[in-house]
Each structure stands twice: as structure tokens, then as C-alpha cells.
Amino acid sequence: MTVENSVLLQKVKELYARLQKAALTAEDIEAPSNVTFPDYSAVIKQLYEEPETFQTRFYCFIPIFDIFRAFRNPDTLVLDVGAHLGYSAIAMRRHGCSAKIVSIDAIPSNVLSLAQLKELEGEAYDYIHCAVGDSVGELRLYVPVMNGVGITAIASTGGTLSEHFAIHLAQQASSYPNVSKPGVDEPRIAILDIKSSTLDSLFEDRGEVERIVAIKMDLEGNEGPAVKGAEGIFRRSKPLLMVEGANRDPVVAEAMKSYGYFHCERYDGVLRVQQKTSMAQDGFWVHPDRVVNYRSLGIFEGELPESFQAREYASVVCVPRGIGLASVDIRVIPRADF
User: Fold this and answer.
1) CA–CA distance, 107 with 155 (Å, rounded to integer)
2) Does 334 fall in a domain?
3) pTM of the entire structure?
4) How far apart are CA 18 and CA 15, in angstroms?
5) Higher pLDDT, 3 or 254
6) 302 in the same domain as 206
7) Higher pLDDT, 293 or 159
């Protein structure tokens, strides 16, 4: 019997349906103290030190991060928002990113692997244990639990724990068998209330807003609030944004457009404008003031959206070389490289 037709899958679908209706029962909820949250620090060390192992495990995942090859200034910051184990940061490094990477993740157990990555990377890397949204306070996360083990990779504020993910969780049962009741799978939900902040607040406090040149964001459905909580960063520093869901989330799309950005997809290692609804897993939002640099760095090609074309150049100056208007050179001055 396939997992699509199994009793387990039906259990998961019904559990998620109750979550969506805010109707979880006492039997649906597992106390965090009873959940085993895996320690992936040894895994991240192996992935970091063995490129072949990393390639084998994440071969479908690695290519999209080649855009981060453009960010080579160690005095700048790339934010890995929703870091999970830290494999996105490793993928960026594999492609030549030498900016300082700061990972941000809400799950307490993931701090173990991020701390391991910091030990391996030294001053070139840092991490922050915090949930990210549109306000400072607390954020409630729902972690699927299979037979007592927390599946932190798909923890979320609840919106993405829908029927679409039920098959994924049901498939995890073979990796986390029920020890106390062999053959009986028990999907449940653990609830974690995590300290939350906005990206603006986090990096204002660190005095690093102006250093941010790129942001990767994968928050299992909470990308909209996180983007809204980074308005100051996007308006002041104008970093590249790589976001799960591309331009399909209306909250993300509305916010990024209001900040003056347009949407792109990645093709063969470069970004091209994609204004129609994108089916890509991850999309990129670009500010027109950065296009000259992105072209020179080899990560952008093609025309800008029509409404942005007049803004492609960062600045135009007149440099006199004699007397009279005929003796004026017009020079395009691109912004500083990243």
C-alpha cells in the first residue's frame, strides 16, 4: 500500500485539518519536553568538510545559490533567514560567496548545528536564535512530531501544515519508527512559543543595516510578515532578496513592489525579469538601483521592466573638460561593487 492511501496519511491529513481550524485536541498536542529534537551538528560538520557528500545529498538544491557568488566583500553581510541546519550557508560558500553570512533560525535544537558551523567558519559566520516576523514579541510555531521525534524542517506558524505537506510527513514515519508501539504511527504537533523580532530591529541593534547586500528567506509561510518587518533594510540598503514562493505570496509581492523592487527568476546562473506568476520554488526580488552592479558581476541580464528602465543607472554626472557645452563628458557612474 502506498503512503498516499495509507491509514497514516489519513491521520496526518485530519491532524492538519484540525490545526487549520484551530481545533487541535489534547491528544493532538505533544509537550515539547516529551519530544526528541535531533542534534544535527555532526551532520553539518560532515556536509561542510565533505563536498561530495553535500553534493550527493543536496544536488537539486545547490544550483540556485550560485547567484550568491557575486557577494565577495567580507565586510558585507548576507542573511540566511530560516537557516534550519545551515546548509544554505554552505551552498553559498560552495559558489564562492565570501561575505559574512548571518543565519537566523527559530528552532532551539538548530542552534546546535549553527554553533558547529560557526566553529568551522570562525569570524566569517554568525547566527541568531530568533523567530522573525513583523513585530517584536513572541511567535507561535507548530512542529510536526512523528512517533515522538520533532520534524523541524517543516515547522511553521501553521499555514503550510496543510494537506500538501501531509504526504511528506507520512513518509517520515519509516525514519522515525514507533518504539513503544511497533507498527502504530502517532503523528502529533508540538507547540513552541519563540522570542520574535523584526529584521529591522535585529540589525539596527547590531548597527549593521548598511552592510546587508543579500537576504535568503525560507520561513515556511511566514515570509510575508518577515518582509514587512524588514522595510527599513529594503529601503535603505536595497539588498537582493531570494525568497521561497517566488512572487506567489501576495503579501510578499505587495511589500516588495512598494519598496521599489521587481521580481526575477534564475536562468543558467543569471537573473532575468519575470513579472508573471512564477512557478519556481524560489524567486528573486531586485532593486533597480542595483542592476548596474549586478550586470557587472554577471548575475543579471536582459531588460528591466518598462517602468524601471530610466532608473537603471545609479547616477549620471557631467565632467567639464574645457569651455562650453560641447566640452562636457557624460559619464555613467555605477555604485560600488559588492
Assistant:
1) 8
2) no
3) 0.89
4) 5
5) 254
6) yes
7) 293
